[in-house]
Each structure stands twice: as C-alpha cells, then as structure tokens.
Amino acid sequence: MTSRIREWLEVRIGLDELVRSQLTDYRVPRNINLFYTLGMVAFAAFLLQVATGILLLIYYIPDDKDAFESVRLIMNQVPYGWLFREMHVVGSNLMVAVLLLHVSSVFFFGAYKKPRELTWVVGALLLLTTFAFCLSGYLLPWSQLSFWATTIVTTIPTAFPWVGDFAANLIRGGDKVSGVTLNRFFALHVGLLPFLLLGLFAVHVFLVRRIGISAPPLGTEEERPWLTFRHEDHPDGLPFYPYFVSLEAVMIALYFVVMFFIIAFVPALFLPQDSLTPADPLNTPEHIRPEWYFRAPYEMLKLIPNRFLGIALQVVLVAIFILWPFLDLSRKHNLLKRPLLLACFLGTIVVWIGLSIWGSY
Amino acid sequence: MNRRRFLKALASLLGLTALGAFAYPLLRLLSPIEAAVRAKINVTFPKGEIPVGSYKDFLMGGTPAILINRGTPGFVALSRVCTHLGCLVRYDKDRQVLICPCHAGTFDLRGNVISGPPPKPLERFSVSVMGDNVVVG
Amino acid sequence: MRYLLPLLLFFALLSPAQGAWTDVFHKEFFHPEKPRVEKEVCLVCHDSDLIKPQYRAIPAEWRKSWHYRNDVSCQNCHGGDPNDAAKAMLPASGFVGTPKPKDVPKFCGKCHLGIMQNYLESGHGKALMATGKGPNCVTCHGAHDIKKANIDLINEKLCSTCHTYERAKVMKASLMLTEEKINQLDAGLKTLRAGLISTGDEEKDLFRTQAEYRTLFHTVDVTLVKDKTEEFNQRLAAIQVGVQKGFQELRFRQNFAVFIMLLFLGLALTLFFLSRKSE
Questions:
Q1: Using the beta-carbon criterion (under 8 Å), do B25 and A58 form an inter-chain contact?
Q2: 8 Å CB contact of C11 and A303
Q3: Which chains border A (3 or more CB–CB pairs < 8 Å)?
Q4: Sheet-wide strand order for B97-99
Q5: Distance separating alpha carbons of residues B55 and B126, to the nearest angstrom
Q6: If you ran DSSP here, which 8-state letter would residue C64 be given?
Q7: Do B88 and B112 have their domain in common?
Q8: Do the interacting molecules here have an ipTM over 0.95?
Q9: pLDDT recorded at residue B122
Q10: Quick check: A225 pLDDT over 90?
C-alpha cells in the first residue's frame, strides 16, 4: 500500500531523489552532538505554541473588559482548557530556555564564523522576534502582573531623547498601558509576529542547509582560502535520516517530558499570585518583576544610575549581539583554545545568571 | 521479533497513545459546552405577598436573593451576595438602599454601588409581572 | 571581543549610588501610584515630629494594621477633609476626633454594622452604655494596630480584667471547633488557588459564614452560640463539598499530566535506543 503511494508520488515529484538528497544522502558530521538538535527543538516548541495558541484563540476575548474573565473560564470551565493554557504558558518559557541554550552552543562552537555570519544575524533577529512574542503575549491575560510588567517595559523607550516618548506612545497606543495597548499587542502576537518568525525561520534553515552544517571544532580545525562558494560536505558523516532525525525526536520528546513535569508538579511556577488577580491601573503591587528571561536586563537597568545611559548600553549590547560575527574575526573555531574569549563567555553567563537571581528579590 | 522491531512497535504504540491523549481533550475542548446549568430557573410569587415598599428574601438557584417592590419603578430582583467579600446585604427601607453589614458597602435599588468597598454592582435578575404573579428569572 | 571585557568590568564595579537610584528608577519607570491612604493630608502633620510624642507612633502602628492593608485611611474612621489641611479637622467637614469610650462602638460601627448591633445587645455593650465602663472595640482589637481577627483574642489576660475567665473559656471552647473547620477550609482553598483552580464562590461563602459566626460571638451569649453552631456547621459542610470537588479536579489534572509525562518519557527512551541501533 505505502509502496504504491510512493510510486505515485515518484512519478510526479521525483520523491526518491528528494528523499535521497534531503534526508538519507544528506550527511551530518560524525562528531555531532545533542546541542545541534536544539534549533529543531525550538522550532517544535514554536509549533506547539501555535497549536495551543489557536485553541486558546477560540475562547479568549481580546478586550480589557473580558480578557481576564475569558482566561479564567478557559482554566475552569472549558473542558481541558487548563491543559492547553498551561502548555502555552510553560511552553513559552521553555522555548526561550531552549533558544538561549541554542544561542550559547552556537557561540561556543564558533558556528557563527565565516561563512555563517548571515545565519547568526537572522538567528539573532529570530531571538528578538521571540522576545516580542513573549512581551506581547504576557499582556493578554490582563492580570496585575501582565499590566504592571508591561508598564515598566513600555516606559523604557522614553529614556531616549526626542524619539523616546513618541516610540513609547506608539507601542502603547497612548501615554499609558490601557485596553488600546491590549488590542495592539494582540494583533502583534497573533497577526504579525507568527508570519515574521516563520519567514525568518525559513531563511535561517535555508542558510543552514545551503552552507552546510558546521562540524564541532573540538578536535578538527578547518582552514581554507575563501574565494568561492563551497557547500560544506561531510561525506564520511552519518545520514541525516535516520540518525539525526531520531536524535531530534528524542530531544523533542524530552521537551515534552520537562513541560509536563512542570504542569504536573509545579503548575504555578510561571503563574504567581499577581497573575491570578485582574489588572487594576490604580493599584501597583509591591513586587513587580519581569519574567525570568528579562530579569538580567531589568536588574542591569536598576544598577546604572542614569536612565539614558542604562538603556543606551542595552541597545549597544544588543547591537554587539546581532553583529558579533563581524566583531570576532579570529579564524579559530575552538573556543577552548581562546582563553580570553572563553573567560568572557563564561563570565557573561555567570553575570547573566547572577543578575537574574538578584532581580528576583 | 528482534529488538529493532520491538522498539519500533513500542515507539508506535506510545506515539499513538500520546496522540490519543491529546486528541480526546482537543475534541472535548472543541465541542460545544453544555450551556451553563443556570437553566430555566424561575421563581414565582403572588403579587399580593409583596406590597409596595416591602421585600422578600428568597433563593435564586442557590444564590440568596431579594425581591423588592419599589412602587412606581416596579419590582427589582437582586442577588444579596455583596460583591466585596460575599456577606449578605440587607434592605434599609428608610434610606432606600441595600447595606452590607460587614463593611457597610452600600448599593442603590438597582444594584449599583453608592459607597464602600464593593468593586462591582449586585447581580440583577430579570423580573416580569404576569397577571397576579411576579416571575423572577 | 575587545568590547566585551571592559563592559563586563563595568558591571562588576557596582555603583554605590545604587540604593538611591532604585527609588529614582521606580519613579522613572513605574510611576507607581502612592496608595490612596498615604496621600491624605493628615499624615503631613501626624507623621512628622511636629506632633506630640504620645501620638507620634500612631501612623506606624496603622501601617502595620489590617486596615492599612485594606485601604482604610484616617479619614475613613475619623472623618474630616482628607485633601485640605485647613478643613481637615473641622466638625463641619465631618471630623469626629478621638471617640470617647462610650462612643467607640458607634465609631467602629460606621462600617462594622452587623457586629455593632450584636455588641450593643450584649452584656458587654449594655454594661458600657449603662455605666460607661466595660469593654469596647478598642479593648480587644486595639485602636490603630488592628490585626486580623482570630480566636486568640479571647484569652485569660484580656478577659479576666472585669470577671473570671471561666465564662470566656466556655465561649472559646464552643467557638473552637467551628473556627478550626473554617481555617481548614481556608487552607484548602489556598491550595486550590495555588493549583490554579478557581474558587470564587466557595471563598465568598466561607467569608460570609465566618463573618456571621464572628458577628454572633459579639453577643457573648454562649447559649445562642451553641444553638447556632449546628447551623453553621451545616453551612461549612456544604462549602466542604465544593472544596472537595476542587481537590478532585486538582488531582485529576495532576494525574493526567503525569500520565502524559510518562508517555513521553517512554517515547524518548524508545527512540533513544532505536537511534543507537541505526548507526
């Protein structure tokens, strides 16, 4: 039966050649490791967000009068609404965690270097798009936490002279967060960002495939003159299908395990008390903090005693992040052979974690 | 049955079960929700039982409620559950208001908050006069 | 590369001005609203060293109170104009000042109507109104440092001021079981909330039952309390049913999630072994 379908497709689209070139003859380096699957895991996480998001969309009401109550109904009255809502909340946090690991491992393996600079830049834009998803999605339940965390973040652009206030008003749809902001963020979250992310993702995957997978440099070094385009082959590597695909499948299954561990045992991990109270513009809760992935930048802002300087610094850091392949021109891929950069890399991670923990108090 | 076939079969079984474990909730979520069982609860009183200016305490599907004859503006039926913390409001005939004994939340006879801590108006039930009877709900 | 190190060093040298900056930061980024109760003009004098030493501690006590947490301000109890210093303490603005002991029940009864009514009909209330001597609200609950009411306000020290502790002991004993049940249900509802189960109706029912029960106590009539206890216990039993349903739902959700987690764990292991063979 399946062979008959295969023959039917073969005659029409040349299925065999497609499978061979894209899956079985496509080879990955022998010394590939788990970290290489993280990109795919992140994309699977994104698809899960879209699927659960669409289900929530059936019952969610994007208006400041009804939003909170509609979420409460999803959690308590809609059959299994709680399941998909919690998957969406936990998934959004796990996706960011996976992405941060993915970025760190790409950095560690020097996979952003020539000829892969563009892949990194597109990847950085993907990360920023994901953060935009997080920001816009956070407001939608219209809880105290949503409202006040968004108030802080949307006030940040006002630090810039001249354009700051205009930018903040544009984002918020007014001079403070209100139902108008909710409408905008909803349109962004559901209408614009998914397509932006998918577009960037398509370019990202195209680049990875076109240029070829980089081999982990811990051991092998590759030096060659850069005169013409050459797709990076691994003729003695392992077939992408079934080897790497099954590795990705294992990692995706583990992603689900972590997600459901959290849903089963600590369902309120990402939903503290303030997220269970409806938004009250007249009443600021005592401890407003952004979500964990924004805590380090938030704490950094609190430490620098000048608003403009603090934000300008963050913009500079983001620019450095996006343009890193153009700043690090060393040809050495192996990070372990570059002690200074390795120290900075580890130092950044430590500082990030430190600031995040500090920002939790 | 060699090891590979066993593992493949196991993977298929687990995969299908996982799919089913999501398919069932998905189906339930997409199916129309049974209309909230606030069904057709009606409570009827003879008009004569409640002369102008007086009231009647009753239960509206489990919720303590009050029916007041306001005279010219007609009958009104409101939930007695104060929207602050849940105490039952009492009718003050002299001031023509409903007051909560817990923190003095005060409502007018349409259920709107006049003063005090309550955040929302009292829930209101529909009232109709059919012949000699007053029907609530 | 050359930028990263100096930047990291910059952050490592934490600014000593951080403390003051945090306040400025909050003002700049939050514009948090000062709580309404802190904006009243009364505090300008009463929370400063202008005021006599014997009154100096009052705002601090009030800030620790349950009233403060629930947005009850100076003006809410003492009247007067909360915005205009000139009119703040004029009788014409409704200012009543410090109530005399006999006026305390009416003072607190402005809001706590139900309790005032029961109190005035009680032995305590009658004694106070007739003789000017007797326990009023402040005797047990304090004036500004008012804490959330609990059964240990009935204690030997307080209740043997005028008579033996015996009768208070009997009263406390008859209240004890019901109070414990209420606390149990309250804890149950808290757990449900933490498990993201909505409990709005049960919470209102419980608060109402507890409020009515405590109001009843103020009659200090042990016979009445004992009579009504059965009725209250029935109401609590009904709430208990709702809470149990909530726990059932919580357990179901947990079991469902664990089931899916184990499924995927099995899947991950199976796929892992499968992938190894295909090398």
A1: no
A2: yes
A3: B, C
A4: B90-92, B97-99, B106-107, B113-115
A5: 16
A6: T
A7: yes
A8: no
A9: 94
A10: no
CA distance A205 to A211: 10
Q: Are residues B27 and B72 in the same domain?
A: no
A314 touches chain C (CB under 8 A): no
Q: Kindly state the average pLDDT of the residues A257-277.
A: 91
| CA nearest neighbour of A343 among B45, C12, B69, B92 | C12
Please give, rounded to a whole number of angstroms, the shortest distance from the CA of A81 to a CA of chain B. Answer: 7
Test A79 with B29 for CB contact under 8 angstroms: yes
Can you tell me the distance from the alpha carbon of A135 to that of A150, in angstroms, rounded to the nearest whole number?
A: 7
Question: How many C-beta neighbours within 10 Å does residue A272 have?
Answer: 14
Is the same domain home to B27 and B55? no
pLDDT tens digit sequence for A86-133: 999 999 999 999 999 999 999 988 888 888 999 999 999 999 999 999
Is B37 inside a domain boundary? no
pLDDT grade for C11, boundaries at 50, 70 and 90: very low
Classify residue B27: in a domain, yes or no.
Answer: yes
For residue C104, give the nearest of C67, C129, C73 by alpha carbon.
C129
Distance from CA of C274 to the nearest CA of A (A): 8
Task: Residue B62: give its domain's CATH number.
Answer: 2.102.10.10
pLDDT at A24: 86
Domain count, chain B: 2
Phi/psi of residue B114, each to 5°? Answer: -95, -45
Q: Which residue from C minimizes the CA distance to B116?
A: C111
Residue span of the structural domain in which B8 resides? 3-31
Q: Are residues B61 and B17 in the same domain?
A: no
Which of B14, B86, B116 faces C205 most closely, judged by CB atoms?
B86
Q: Which residue has the higher pLDDT, A360 or A48?
A: A48
Q: Which residue of A has its CA nearest to C20?
A: A305
Q: Which residues contact A351 (CB under 8 A, 6 or more apart)?
A: A296, C8, C11, C12
Chosen for mutation from A153, A257, A361 (greatest number of chain C CBs closer than 10 Å) is A257
B38 located within any domain = no
- pTM, whole model, 2 decimals? 0.85
Classify each residue of C116-130 as buried b or exposed e, where b means 16 or more C-beta atoms within 10 Å of its C-beta: bbbbbebebbeebee
Closest CA to C29 of A234, A253, A149, A27: A149
Whether residues C7 and A341 touch (CB distance < 8 A) is answered with: no
In the prediction, which pLDDT does C18 show? Answer: 43
Q: Which of B29, B31, B36 sits opposite A81 (nearest CB)?
A: B29
Mutate to test the interface with A, among C39, C271, C279 (most CBs of A within 10 A): C271
Report the DSSP beta bridge partners of residue B134: B45, B129
Tell me the chain A residues in contact with residue C30 when contact means C-beta distances shorter than 8 Å. 148, 151-152, 155, 284, 288
Contact residues, chain C, for A241 at CB < 8 Å = none
B78: phi then psi, degrees, rounded to nearest 5? -130, 155
Q: Report chain C residues whose CB lies below 8 A from the CB of B104.
A: 110-113
- Cβ(C207)–Cβ(B85) under 8 Å? yes
Tell me the backbone φ, ψ of residue A280, rounded to 5 degrees.
-135, 100
**Chains contacting B (3 or more CB pairs within 8 Å):** A, C
| Residues in Cβ contact with C270 at an 8 Å cutoff, skipping those fewer than 6 apart | B7, B10, B11, B14
| Closest in C14, C21, C257 to A260, CB measured | C257
Nearest to A304 by CA among A360, A346, A355, A357: A355
B and C: number of Cβ contacts within 8 A:
66
Reply yes or no on whether the pLDDT at C7 is more than 80.
no
The one-letter code for the residue type at A290 is P
Phi first, then psi, for residue A238 (nearest 5°) are -95, 145
Tokens of A253: 């299954």
Question: What CATH class has A27-224+235-286?
Answer: mainly alpha
Helix axes A292-303, A117-139, angle to 10 degrees: 90
